[in-house]
Amino acid sequence: GVDYDTVVGRSLIICMPRDASGVIQPVEIAGRPVRAVKIKGITFEGREVSTEYGNNPDTTIGFDRLGRNFEGQPESQPFNGSPIGRAINENNLHLQVMDTVNVDVPLGFARFPGLTFEGRELGALILGLESEANHFRYFDHLLHLAGGRGHFTPPWERENELPTDINAISRNFADIVHAFRSLGEELRRLHDAGVIWVYPYYGQASFVNGRAKIHDLEASLDQSSMTTEQKIAYRLQDLRTLFNADETYCPGRILFALFTRAGIDYRRLIAEGYFGRELVQDPGRRAILGSLEGKMGTGADSIEGSLRKLFRRSGRTQDPIVLVMEDVIRQ
After folding, report:
1. Residue 59 has pLDDT above 90, yes or no
2. Among 311, 279, 277, which residue's Cα sits nearest to residue 295?
3. Residue 281: which region, alpha, beta or left (left: phi > 0; alpha: psi -120 to 50)?
4. What pTM, to 2 d.p., does this model score?
5. How far apart are CA 170 and CA 75, in angstroms?
6. Mean of the pLDDT values across residues 260-283?
7. Contact (CB, 8 A) for 177 and 264
8. What's the farthest any 2 CA atoms get from each other in the chain?
């Protein structure tokens, strides 16, 4: 029964009123012009919220107060709804970071009285959008710069949308370089604002007005009660997950292999955005990049080995990436 303009995944987009000529009249909220409202967790591809079925995501890896890893419990989620706890968490984290991080404007959350999934009350997150347009997510932005086509669709449907040569990449070389650096810069801002993204992927960011924009903080973590060891481990996990984009799914491997053939070292560019070009490009400090590439994986086995190397019970390792990240946290 809700009038809306667009359906995007689990969200409805409702534009602000238009004038007589059809132009949207934005409303200023927190100093930003909001042109549409996004209600996240109210639908799934246009269907009504249901509690009948859900999915079981992969087990996540967390870190204890000594920086040692542990496996989290897999948690089933409804396909077309959101537990109210996740909506509240995402709203609070948006409020925490919105002054320095490029995120949508948090407007609050809603509850669905009496509607539960596995004993958890369901709700929705409400966000203000500065544009009513459905911006391409990061994978799609990079895909278009590489001469591909398409929009944010399930990755297994994308093979026929991928570019077949590097000519477009060569033409858009500077824009692609900027896109990867911007993603590293925005991740650093998020971390410095006290939030861990947690297993980010290229569908959880978009590229708007020349800058990366971060989405989907519902499972993200506040760092305020973390030890230094935990902050280092979680921050490295975020970075390493973005580094693993070429390993996540087949189209990603193809696209990122083309970037590599064109001479775009996207891992280094992300690191330059996060740590600063001067540090990453300094020959005496380049070890941090190799350390970051080799130390952190996204699976339980690789992280188990990573943390044994990063932190030892007898004391801190002298691993260069740990020392650099300690400096980052102290800044």
Report:
1. no
2. 311
3. alpha
4. 0.85
5. 43
6. 84
7. yes
8. 71
Closest to 49 in 3D by CA, of 97, 4, 116, 98? 116
Q: What is the Cα–Cα distance from 37 to 6, expressed in whole angstroms?
A: 11
Higher pLDDT, 63 or 119: 119
Gap between the Cα atoms of 325 and 309, Å rounded = 15
User: In 118-274, which ranges are E strands?
Assistant: 120-129, 195-196, 205-208, 211-214, 221-222
Q: Please report how many Cα atoms fall inside a 13 Å half-sphere around the Cα of residue 309, on the Cβ side.
A: 16
- Rounded CA separation 100/121 (Å): 31
Specify the pLDDT at position 88.
Answer: 95
The SS3 assignment for 305 reads helix
3-state secondary structure 144-186: HHCCCCCCCCCHHHCHHHCCCCCHHHHHCHHHHHHHHHHHHHH
Helix H or strand E segment including 322: helix 320-330
- Round to whole Å and give the CA distance between 84 and 126: 12
CB 274 within 8 A of CB 215: no
Cβ–Cβ under 8 Å, residues 165 and 254: no
Indicate the residue type of 111. Answer: R
- pLDDT at residue number 49: 60
**CA Rg, the chain, in Å?**
20
What tokens appear for 27 in the block?
Answer: 């409303």
Separation of first and last alpha carbons in the chain: 50
Q: Give the span between the Cα atoms of 62 and 74, in whole angstroms.
A: 12
pLDDT tens per residue, range 301-321: 444 444 445 544 334 555 666
